Hints:
Layout: E1 3-9, E2 17-23, E3 28-33, H1 38-45, E4 49-51, H2 52-73, H3 78-94, E5 109-111
Parallel strand pairs: 4-5
Antiparallel strand pairs: 1-2, 2-3
Helix pairs in contact: 2-3
Amino acid sequence: xxxxxxxxxxxxxxxxxxxxxxxxxxxxxxxxxxxxxxxxxxxxxxxxxxxxxxxxxxxxxxxxxxxxxxxxxxxxxxxxxxxxxxxxxxxxxxxxxxxxxxxxxxxxxxxx
Length: 112
């Protein structure tokens, strides 16, 4: 799916980053970036103890996606490029410049 436009939404009470994304067919989607609370979702999936292999794969996937999102944003203009660069900065902060395997927002139990 390709989006023709994405607009930052400054409404709501949560600290989530929210965007209204409009697809090529005109449909609107709400995109949310929610690092807080993901630990509960991950813990539930793994029933409380998350294996380190999951974190290694997540770091690989999120860094790959983050890197590819920057050139993807170029056709959409400076605003989109800035958004992707800001997200890249967030990812680097979560993983302490990719020196850590587990993101800083995770506060649960690790199975190392």
